[in-house]
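[recover] target loaded
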């Protein structure tokens, strides 16, 4: 298993390096794998919360790894900071946590989704403005965000836009929200193709970037946000018996479940 590897107990949380080719370079990403078995007093809920939290951490970290084109000579890394205007497209599983993290670090957050229930929930957990993309077209969404910025003394440029919906419509919406100096982070994934005018990146002196997962050095800070009560988990998670997997999958497919569904062995589901 490698130099220095010791015995691994059944049921332990295991850290595994995944090597991904990126040109001539290789990227290291840390993934947590939980196997079924005894948990030695550590509740399965804790493991699931960590997994969910780690997935969300990648979103804000996406803007912390590269120099900002408009920041003097590019010495300081770009990051969501106090007073940044943050737009999150897709307020579901990852997007909901993205909103909370951005809010926790001082960002002023706008959440966009097509589900009023999700918008209502995230409006109580960090989003100052919620917009339903079913009711507003791209132009109206951008105008509403611009108005929010003006009313709150926020910048009309350098917005941080996170596409977390993983849908073609969401990606098109996010790209359409570019402003001068904006940073677009593509977090959600879809196999569908999206038609956009890439020249907007040049015209707005903006950036579009993606990221595969949360780097190890972001884990401690992400978990601290949870432990410090700055990011809520319980309102966004619901547990179901593993035996109900088919029913849960069908409910998720038909958008009948609005929180993150976690399947656990029947005996471990809280009463």
């Amino acid at each position: 298993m490698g130099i220095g590897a010791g015995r691994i107990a059944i049921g332990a949380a295991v850290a595994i390096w995944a090597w991904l080719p990126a040109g001539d370079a290789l990227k290291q990403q840390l993934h947590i794998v939980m196997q079924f078995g005894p948990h030695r007093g550590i509740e399965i809920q804790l493991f699931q919360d960590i997994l969910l939290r780690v997935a969300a951490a990648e979103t804000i970290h996406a803007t912390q790894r590269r120099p900002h084109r408009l920041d003097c000579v590019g010495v300081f890394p770009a990051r969501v900071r106090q007073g940044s205007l943050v737009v999150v497209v897709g307020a579901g599983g990852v997007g909901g946590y993205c909103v909370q993290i951005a809010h926790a670090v001082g960002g002023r957050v706008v959440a966009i989704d097509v589900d009023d229930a999700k918008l209502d929930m995230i409006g109580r957990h960090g989003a100052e403005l919620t917009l339903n993309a079913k009711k507003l077209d791209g132009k109206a969404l951008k105008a509403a965000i611009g108005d929010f910025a003006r009313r709150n003394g926020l910048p009309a440029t350098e917005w941080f836009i996170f596409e977390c919906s993983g849908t073609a419509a969401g990606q098109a919406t996010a790209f359409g929200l570019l402003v001068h100096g904006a940073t677009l982070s593509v977090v959600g994934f879809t196999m569908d193709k999206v038609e956009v005018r890439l020249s907007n990146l040049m015209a707005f002196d903006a950036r579009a970037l993606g990221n595969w997962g949360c780097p190890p050095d972001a884990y401690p800070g992400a978990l601290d946000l949870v432990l410090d009560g700055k990011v809520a988990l319980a309102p966004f998670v619901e547990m179901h018996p593993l035996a109900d997997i088919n029913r849960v999958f069908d409910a998720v497919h038909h958008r009948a479940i609005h929180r993150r569904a976690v399947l656990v062995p029947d005996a471990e589901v809280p009463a």
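[recover] notes: The chain has two domains: 58-210, 233-271.
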